[in-house]
Design a protein that fits this description.
Helix 5 crosses helix 6, helix 10 packs parallel to helix 12 and helix 11 runs antiparallel to helix 12. The protein is mainly α. The protein has a six-stranded mixed sheet with strand order 1-3-2-4-6-5. The protein folds into two domains: 287 residues, no CATH class; 108 residues, 3-Layer(aba) Sandwich (Cobalt-precorrin-4 Transmethylase, domain 1). Strand 5 and strand 6 form a beta hairpin. It is built from 24 helices and six strands.
Length: 525
């Protein structure tokens, strides 16, 4: 950054996006099961709390669950679970190490903020690197810094990015890995000679990317192919050798640090799932359309069809006026190639291989896809008309995307606003003795462990034979004068269980409170 004005603008936009992130994060009311795993895997002495011998059919206080979700004073400085749990799970350990560092400040209490604050910090760097990349694209335009910065900021406050910030998983870090790798490869493209310092930075970025998420390999693999073809075409054998050696060293170092990657990718259930999805020809097209719909919803507020229509119309206008979109310098074309090919490939391949067709798997490239679409419109407008018209039209389009989402009820993923009320009630007047009627055929307790970290007294009854004597024994010596809470896992006869509880404990009323991920919640009194 060459001047104070540029630095101040960057600081201003990062502060603005941080305020937005804090506001959105303050509305997060619950944890997804994978977010619960994020906390547990960084901290606990095993992957799953349910594997404890004393987990089922015993009364527990909220501290029992806090021990899984939060770092206790006795465990501070113990980073062994970060490595051991990932070894036995399906992900590499870097994100969990960073999350654990943030969790050290929570004083043993469950909080969403260590994960959200970590993502807010990561997104400050994401915006900066997106800005650096966009400066390369806008390098020959007037006010390039402001254009690049505004578009970088916009890419960080689209719905996909807001969801990424509040999702306490490794996807924000993976987004940053991809942007850093992309920017460094643009720098490599600009240098006619290979510089050792740049290769070291590229190698470090690749190493960190592999240690964050295995899907990063899809991105770096196709990026490597792009440079392989470039060096072969230009007969830069020496450059290709040094570049390839950098990639090999990064890969070897990742295996030295975390050798379990091999078993995860080739022998684990997730790795086998990837191969199965790749060979399931009948599901490829539906998977693609499903994730395109997701991209449209979270990155373009439902306006992707309009944007594609605008691009098509501008292409026709440019062709009629004999002013073509690809009227770019060789360097601009190469930068676009570096951006477009890996980004589109990553989107396509992750859409196909992902176990579920949801935002988090494609979110590392949602920002890039957003800025590429806007940049495409900008270039077509500038080539077909004037730069002033291009500036005005793109500014209007960005305002429409920002303030007029379609449909109007769009919300960041994983806010769980619908569960705020029940959490507040259980934190207050409904903090009653609680029984979770657990069905091992359904499972999913971790979907709701967050709420149990708020309940003072709870009992997880596994595959319970629901009789009067069983219910009376469970609640013996418990103060049930204000009633009890009953969570009933899916796949059971709720009415029968409720009737048995009411008759056994001499209750007359039952209020259905809410349907959670894998259970129904009732207040019986």
């Amino acid at each position: 950054m060459k001047n104070k004005k540029e630095l101040l603008l960057i600081v201003f936009f990062i502060l603005l996006q941080t305020i937005i992130y804090i506001f959105v994060g303050s509305h997060k009311a619950y944890l997804h099961i994978d977010e619960a795993y994020s906390f547990g895997l960084t901290n606990y002495d095993k992957i799953d709390i349910e594997s404890n011998q004393d987990f089922f059919n015993t009364w527990h206080s909220k501290e029992y669950y806090e021990d899984y979700l939060a770092v206790q004073e006795k465990d501070k400085g113990n980073y062994i679970p970060v490595y051991e749990n990932q070894k036995n799970d399906v992900h590499p350990p870097l994100y969990y190490l960073l999350l654990r560092m943030c969790m050290e400040f929570t004083n043993g209490h469950v909080s969403i903020w260590p994960g959200i604050i970590l993502n807010i910090i990561l997104y400050a760097f994401i915006t900066v690197f997106m800005y650096f990349i966009l400066k390369k694209l806008f390098h020959d335009t007037n006010s390039l810094n402001m254009k690049a910065l505004v578009l970088a900021f916009m890419s960080s406050i689209i719905l996909a990015s807001l969801s990424n910030v509040i999702n306490i998983r490794m996807y924000a870090l993976s987004t940053l890995n991809i942007l850093i790798t992309t920017f460094l490869h643009i720098k490599l493209l600009e240098n006619e000679k290979i510089h050792v310092k740049l290769l070291i930075m590229i190698g470090a970025s690749v190493l960190l990317g592999i240690l964050t998420h295995y899907y990063y390999l899809f991105y770096i693999a196709i990026l490597y192919v792009v440079f392989l073809i470039k060096y072969l075409k230009e007969k830069q054998v020496k450059s290709l050798l040094y570049y390839s050696l950098t990639m090999i060293i990064a890969g070897i170092l990742s295996l030295i640090i975390f050798p379990y990657s091999i078993s995860h990718m080739f022998f684990g259930y997730r790795g086998q799932g990837v191969m199965s999805n790749l060979t399931n020809i009948h599901e490829i097209i539906p998977s693609m359309f499903s994730q395109i719909y997701t991209l449209n919803y979270y990155s373009f507020n439902g306006l992707l069809p309009v944007i594609l229509l605008i691009i098509a119309i501008l292409l026709v206008i440019n062709k009629i006026r004999k002013k073509y979109f690809l009227k770019l310098t060789m360097k601009e074309k190469q930068i676009l190639k570096i951006l477009c090919i890996p980004t589109i490939f990553f989107f396509v391949i992750t859409s196909i291989v992902s176990p579920w067709k949801v935002l988090r798997y494609i979110v590392p490239v949602c920002g890039l896809l957003f800025v590429l679409a806007i940049y495409c419109i900008y270039v077509l407008l500038k080539n077909g008309f004037t730069e002033k018209i291009a500036n005005i039209c793109v500014a209007i389009l960005l305002c429409i995307i920002l303030v007029a989402p379609i449909p109007l009820h769009l919300k960041p993923e994983l806010l769980y606003n619908d569960r705020k009320e029940i959490v507040q009630h259980i934190n207050g007047e409904l903090n009653l003795p609680t029984m979770y009627v657990f069905n091992s055929q359904t499972g999913g307790f971790l979907d709701d462990i967050f709420i149990f970290s708020k309940i003072n007294d709870s009992f997880i009854a596994k595959d319970m034979d629901c009789t009067s004597s069983t219910i009376q024994t469970i609640f013996e010596n418990k103060d049930i004068s204000k009633g009890i809470l009953v969570f009933i896992n899916d796949g059971q006869n709720n009415d029968t269980i409720i009737d048995t509880v009411k008759s056994s404990l001499h209750f007359t009323n039952c209020d259905h409170l809410q349907k959670l991920s894998c259970c129904q919640v009732y207040h019986i009194y």
